[in-house]
């Protein structure tokens, strides 16, 4: 069924397009193969704040620390919490300034990756001297930013309790296989 257009609407349309110029070609543009998109450069792992946009205010620090990325198996996390995974390396951040502790932690994690360490221990202390556990709060935040860290939790009493954390690191052999595939 064809609807007729009222004459006043037709005149209104003709007035609106009166200064339009007709297109010289009435065919569609031919198909052209588009170039593939250029990949964005990967952020440098040292520049964690850009890699994982997470502010320190978003991370709450409790007495017992616990964090796991999606996909970490529950049984593996339970082994980490019990201290059943062998600690390959450890670092003590007691008494360091926040900036020095951050750089030391960064170097420590690089060393763990180079040595293919699966589980490490970081001693941050309980903050007894200052009243507030500054390094504990910072370590809780910094570890979440690192892509090689899969999970972490407060250590058992025999390994430092809430003044230390066990860190589960990404398996370097698996990470290389995933990048290739």
From TrEMBL:
<protein>
    <recommendedName>
        <fullName>Smr domain-containing protein</fullName>
    </recommendedName>
</protein>
<dbReference type="InterPro" id="IPR002625">
    <property type="entry name" value="Smr_dom"/>
</dbReference>
<feature type="compositionally biased region" description="Basic and acidic residues">
    <location>
        <begin position="1"/>
        <end position="13"/>
    </location>
</feature>
<feature type="region of interest" description="Disordered">
    <location>
        <begin position="1"/>
        <end position="50"/>
    </location>
</feature>
<feature type="domain" description="Smr">
    <location>
        <begin position="91"/>
        <end position="170"/>
    </location>
</feature>
<dbReference type="InterPro" id="IPR036063">
    <property type="entry name" value="Smr_dom_sf"/>
</dbReference>
<dbReference type="Pfam" id="PF01713">
    <property type="entry name" value="Smr"/>
</dbReference>
């Amino acid at each position: 069924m064809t609807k007729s257009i009222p004459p006043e609407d037709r005149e209104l349309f003709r007035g609106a397009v009166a200064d339009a110029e007709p297109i010289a070609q009435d065919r569609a543009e031919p198909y052209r193969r588009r170039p593939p998109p250029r990949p964005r450069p990967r952020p440098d792992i040292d520049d964690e704040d850009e890699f994982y946009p997470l502010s320190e205010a978003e991370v709450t620090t409790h007495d017992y620390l616990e964090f796991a990325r999606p996909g970490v198996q529950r049984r593996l996390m339970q082994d980490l919490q019990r201290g059943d995974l062998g600690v390959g390396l450890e670092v003590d951040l007691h008494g360091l300034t926040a900036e020095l502790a951050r750089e030391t932690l960064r170097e420590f994690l690089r060393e763990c990756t180079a040595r293919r360490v699966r589980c490490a221990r970081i001693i941050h202390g309980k903050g007894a001297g200052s009243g507030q556990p500054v390094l504990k709060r910072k370590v809780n935040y910094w570890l979440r930013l690192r892509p090689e860290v899969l999970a972490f939790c407060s250590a058992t009493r025999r390994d430092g309790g809430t003044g230390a954390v066990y860190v589960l690191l990404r398996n370097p052999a698996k990470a290389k296989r995933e990048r290739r595939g």
